[in-house]
Amino acid sequence: MNVDLATQLIAQMLWTAVIVAAPMLGIALIVGLLISIFQVITQVQEMSLTFIPKLAATVAAILILGPWMIKRILGFATTLIMNIPSYF
Which residues contact 54 (CB under 8 A, 6 or more apart)? Predict the structure, then answer.
């Protein structure tokens, strides 16, 4: 296997992982920021107030975006497996 090919495959794998994880991380970031702003405004410092909404938003994102994420991962895996003969 060529070193350039290995580097290209690793780059594709990491890019796919970033694209799949970005929506969940972005939603958790936005919800956390909104809850933090709410806590600053109301001066309520409850730890579960930040954890539970972020968890609920992340679960909702997985349920809504799950088929798309699986489709992306399966597309990458299918391409990788179908190209195995050309790697040698």
Answer: 28, 31, 32, 35
**What angle (nearest 5°) sits at the alpha carbon of residue 27, between those of residues 51 and 36?**
45
The pLDDT value given to residue 84? 86
Q: Is the pTM of this model over 0.85?
A: no
Of 15, 3, 4, 5, the C-alpha closest to 76 is: 15
As a three-state string, the secondary structure of 1-38 is: CCHHHHHHHHHHHHHHHHHHHHHHHHHHHHHHHHHHHH
* Region for 2 from its dihedrals, namely left if φ exceeds 0, alpha if ψ lies in -120 to 50, beta otherwise: beta
